[in-house]
C-alpha cells in the first residue's frame, strides 16, 4: 500500500473563501447595476450555495437555514429566491440532480454554461465558452429557434479521480 497524497486543506479553504467573496461581490454589483434588490432571503440562499461550493437541493437549503436560524423557511420562499438568482445568472440549476449551484463567474444570463460532473466524487466544475455561444446561436438561427437556457451537463471523471483510477489500474 502506498500512502495517498492528501489535498492541502489550507489552500482549499482560502480558495473557497475567495470564491465565496467573489460570488457575493458579483451579486451586489449586478443588483446595483440592474436596480434589483438582494433581499435578505435572496442573500441567504446565495450565501448558503456560495459557502457550500457544490450543488444543493432546495430541501438541503431549507435544512441549512433551519440549523442557522432555528426556523424552517417555507419551500415557496426558497423557490422564489432561487427564481430571482437563476434569472440573474447568480445561480445555476443542475437538471440531472435537481440541485442548485452558486456562480462566481459573473457571466451573462444568455451565455451557455457547461457543467463537468465527476461521477466518482461528485465535484462539479463550471465552464463557459465563447465559441460554444456562437455555435449555439448559429444552430438556433438555422432552425429559427431562440434559445433561453443553455446548460450542458457532461458526466465523467475529474482530474484527481481519473488519476486515481489510472494508478489503481
Ligand atoms: Zn455561471
Ligand atoms: Zn472526482
What does this structure look like?
- It is a single chain.
- This protein is α+β, with helices and mostly antiparallel strands and 169 residues long.
- It is built from six helices and five strands; from the N terminus they run ααααββββαβα.
- The chain has helices spanning 9-34, 40-52, 58-69, 75-87, 130-142, 159-168, and strands at 91-94, 99-102, 113-118, 124-128, 151-156.
- Helix 1 packs antiparallel against helix 2 and helix 2 crosses helix 4.
- It starts with 8 loop residues before the first helix and ends with a helix.
- The model is unreliable at 4-9 (pLDDT under 50).
- The structure holds zinc ion (2 copies).
Please give the radius of gyration in angstroms: 18 Å
Helix/strand order = HHHHEEEEHEH
Tell the overall outline: globular
Largest sheet: 3 strands, mixed
Strand order of the largest sheet: 4-3-5
Brief sketch in words of this structure:
The protein has 169 residues and is α+β, with helices and mostly antiparallel strands.
List the helices and strands and how they pair.
Elements: H1 9-34, H2 40-52, H3 58-69, H4 75-87, E1 91-94, E2 99-102, E3 113-118, E4 124-128, H5 130-142, E5 151-156, H6 159-168
Parallel strand pairs: 3-5
Antiparallel strand pairs: 1-2, 3-4
Helix pairs in contact: 1-2, 2-4
Bound molecules: zinc ion (2 copies).
Binding site for Zn(2+): 118, 121, 158, 161
Protein name: Fur family zinc uptake transcriptional regulator
Cofactor: Zn(2+)
Top keywords for this entry?
three-stranded mixed beta sheet; single chain; binds zinc ion; globular; 6 helices; metal-binding; Arc Repressor Mutant, subunit A; 169 residues; alpha+beta; WH-like_DNA-bd_sf; two-stranded antiparallel sheet
